[in-house]
Specification:
Radius of gyration: 15 Å
Number of strands: 0
Helix content: over 70%
Largest sheet: none
Order of helices and strands: HHHHHHHHH
Strand content: under 5%
Structural class: mainly alpha
């Protein structure tokens, strides 16, 4: 799935990810399930299917949170932030990215995924507001934000 996703063949990538989920579930590989769900969220985001993407991101966050897969949780928060930015919830997206950037396991890969969203936020928010929102987010706890995302019905 990953190879074709990088080639922007999103429908084909989604098919591969969807085919892998039952296998991961059957062998009780919850890490594989959470990664597959998150990848489906990314693919549906890329296809502009934001409601479906949100559902996959939330399910990925549920599974990754249950197993303590912090890196996947952070990636899920980045995915949720992108979807928030698409619906003009810029400050919320910035807060969530502030949390991700301040997290101790933040790394280059996560940063690459967050970069384009930050660029969007820089265009959408005055500099002072963006920096303030990022700072507020840096003070948040990952589990609190995940619970907020999972409890968010407004999407």
């Amino acid at each position: 799935g990953e190879t074709v996703r990088k080639q922007h063949k999103y429908e084909e990538a989604a098919r591969y990810y969807e085919e892998s989920l039952p296998i991961f579930r059957e062998i009780d590989n919850r890490m594989g399930v959470s990664i597959g769900l998150l990848n489906l969220g990314h693919v549906h985001t890329a296809m502009g299917e934001d409601k479906t993407a949100w559902e996959y991101v939330c399910e990925a966050l549920e599974v990754s949170s249950a197993i303590g897969a912090v890196a996947i949780m952070l990636e899920g928060v980045v995915g949720a932030a992108l979807l928030q930015a698409r619906t003009a919830r810029y400050e919320r997206a910035a807060e969530w990215l502030g949390l991700v950037q301040a997290h101790p396991i933040f790394n280059q890969e996560i940063g690459q995924n967050a970069g384009p969203i930050l660029a969007t936020l820089r265009r959408a928010l005055p500099a002072g507001e963006l920096e303030t929102a990022l700072a507020r987010g840096a003070a948040l706890e990952l589990e609190t934000v995940v619970a907020e995302i999972l409890g968010d019905t407004a999407k």
